[in-house]
Specification:
The complex is a heterodimer. By secondary structure, chain A is an all-beta fold. Helix content of chain A is 0%, strand content 47%. Chain A is built from no helices and eleven strands. In chain A, the strands form two sheets. In chain A, strands 2, 4, 5, 6, 9, 10 and 11 form a seven-stranded mixed β-sheet that branches. A four-stranded antiparallel β-sheet of chain A has the order 1-3-8-7, with no helix packed on it. In chain A, a hairpin with a 6-residue loop joins β7 (65-68) and β8. Chain B is globular. Chain B starts with a strand and ends with a strand. Classes of the chains: A mainly beta, B mainly beta. The A-B interface holds A 31, 40-45, 48, 55-56, 91, 97, 103-110 and B 4, 6, 8, 32, 34, 42-46, 49, 88, 90, 92, 97-104.
Amino acid sequence: EAGVAQSPRYKIIEKRQSVAFWCNPISGHATLYWYQQILGQGPKLLIQFQNNGVVDDSQLPKDRFSAERLKGVDSTLKIQPAKLEDSAVYLCASSDLSGANYNEQFFGPGTRLTVL
Amino acid sequence: QKEVEQNSGPLSVPEGAIASLNCTYSDRGSQSFFWYRQYSGKSPELIMFIYSNGDKEDGRFTAQLNKASQYVSLLIRDSQPSDSATYLCAVKGGGSYIPTFGRGTSLIVHP
């Protein structure tokens, strides 16, 4: 089966600019996650969707970050305006909450964002 | 605030040795525990998950869970240079699907 797709793979922007990332989860996976991974740290969950509803966005900096999953399939994460500290890899993951492997998350390749 | 602690390393072991990676967590309600491997510049991939106290073995990998002491460990037997990566521990609380990751331990297996 096809894995989690993300684009772009790399993005370089200047501070105060806007940027958007796209994710397409594994077909049939109801749950989609966006993580931020700063160099040398573990992934930090930004937002979790169940179908097109938000399960948790407590760690999403809502003054500048937004995310949507309108049709319960692919998702977009936006940063506006970007700050230097937003430089990180943004990982999208998906999981199927049914069956024995309901807890397993499958990660996409990530988008490496550099803010200058 | 849940915390998951890992020694950042690097942990260096010779080829063929046993590598032991440890993780402690703060939330006593945690129920699901995961080990991910992350090669440099790549995304995390799941190696093992464990729910019950005790050991769980899968090939060269063994996960050990001790809920009373709030730690989970990963043993890698017959370590290979290809095992060199960062190993991330992730924990989920009871009734919560929200995972908390540790910062990872860097493992280096030298020939």
